[in-house]
């Protein structure tokens, strides 16, 4: 990768993680936009940006797919799929301590810090399912098809979608390249079995991930697909469209309204993938010709290295911090925005990201499965 493309990927990775934290914290700490007493310019900008949670998920999936495609491209065809699974397995080792620590945070919060009813009375935020069935089901990536996500960590369903997307890609590539009818038949049967088992919400996210795989596997691109300004305009347009449609299923007749809500994020992933092809053009520079990364570049890499753990771990910690604020300091849930609320929000997001970085360093798998190439 050239330096500019690598910086673009790292920056996009940690920004998407921060936007996810803002998105989830906003629902706990601030009232809905329609309930605002006064809609200042700052409030309008904040609510627009903090509402880009699922759009950030789409960017995260494209980035993960790009790193997977880059890995497959640099490996021999016969070894690429196994190398991809090995990378995923090493990152999967981080899931066990994340599940244990998240479960402990949820148990402590539900028993000692539930005066506001956060853990029991707000299923719209998170349904806290603390059972051994959910624990082992999530450990083996069976959520949400067979078991609910464990504890308050609703983000775990996306982690499972990434894993099963990787499995589908590996099975399809190996079956196709084998050239033997019986192996192709077995591969097709396994793919169909896995496809029939996954819920309908899986398919848009698989499509988004495969867009990223295509960018990484086919690049560096010899010529831009579109003009760079057109690529930025396309991304801005699809983000604006996705944001303005919101969660309204009445925009189209049933069942198309529900399908629009599921598949509109594919447009965001497509816009981001097109922009990535603009930057993924130059061949990788020889190591001797590359200058040492600057301080800002190293900070950017560290932030990106913690992004996946922030995605994977923030929800239980976010619930705990919100419960502490409500029970110990009287900070009510879903308040009108103000200076103090914005300051507390910034502190909470920073604390969550710092805790994710520390946890990633302790576990020893800083990329958590998203940045497959260090």
UniProtKB/TrEMBL annotation:
The chain crosses the membrane at residues 7-25, 45-72, 93-113, 154-172, 184-205, 225-244, 265-283, 303-326, 338-356. Keywords: Membrane, Transmembrane, Transmembrane helix. The keyword Transmembrane applies. It comes from the Bacteria. This is Acyltransferase.
């Amino acid at each position: 990768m050239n330096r500019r493309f690598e910086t673009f990927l790292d920056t996009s990775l940690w920004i998407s993680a921060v936007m996810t934290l803002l998105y989830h914290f906003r629902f706990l700490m601030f009232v809905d936009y329609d309930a605002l007493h006064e809609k200042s310019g700052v409030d309008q900008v904040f609510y627009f940006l903090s509402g880009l949670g699922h759009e950030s998920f789409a960017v995260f999936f494209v980035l993960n797919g790009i790193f997977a495609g880059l890995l497959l491209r640099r490996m021999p065809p016969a070894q690429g799929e196994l190398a991809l699974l090995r990378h995923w397995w090493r990152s999967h080792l981080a899931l066990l301590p994340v599940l244990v620590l998240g479960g402990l945070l949820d148990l402590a919060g539900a028993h000692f810090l539930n005066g506001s009813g956060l853990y029991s009375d707000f299923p719209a935020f998170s349904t806290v399912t603390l059972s051994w069935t959910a624990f082992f089901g999530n450990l083996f990536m069976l959520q949400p098809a067979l078991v609910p996500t464990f504890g308050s960590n609703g983000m775990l369903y996306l982690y499972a979608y990434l894993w099963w997307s990787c499995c589908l890609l590996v099975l399809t590539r190996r079956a196709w390249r084998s050239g033997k009818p019986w192996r192709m038949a077995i591969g097709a049967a396994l793919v169909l079995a896995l496809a029939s088992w996954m819920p309908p919400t899986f398919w848009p996210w698989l499509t988004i991930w495969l867009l990223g795989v295509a960018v990484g596997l086919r690049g560096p691109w010899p010529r831009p697909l579109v003009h760079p300004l057109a690529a930025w305009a396309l991304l801005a347009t699809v983000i604006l469209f996705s944001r303005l449609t919101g969660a309204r299923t009445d925009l189209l007749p049933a069942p198309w309204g529900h399908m629009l809500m599921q598949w509109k994020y594919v447009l965001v992933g497509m816009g981001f993938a097109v922009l990535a092809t603009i930057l993924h053009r130059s061949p990788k520079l020889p190591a001797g010709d590359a200058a040492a990364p600057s301080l800002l570049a190293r900070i950017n890499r560290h932030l990106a290295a913690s992004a996946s753990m922030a995605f994977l771990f923030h929800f239980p910690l976010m619930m705990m911090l919100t419960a502490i604020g409500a029970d110990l300091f009287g900070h009510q849930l879903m308040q009108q925005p103000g200076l103090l609320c914005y300051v507390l929000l910034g502190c909470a997001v920073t604390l969550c990201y710092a805790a994710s970085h520390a946890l990633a360093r302790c576990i020893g798998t800083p990329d958590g499965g998203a940045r497959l190439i260090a």
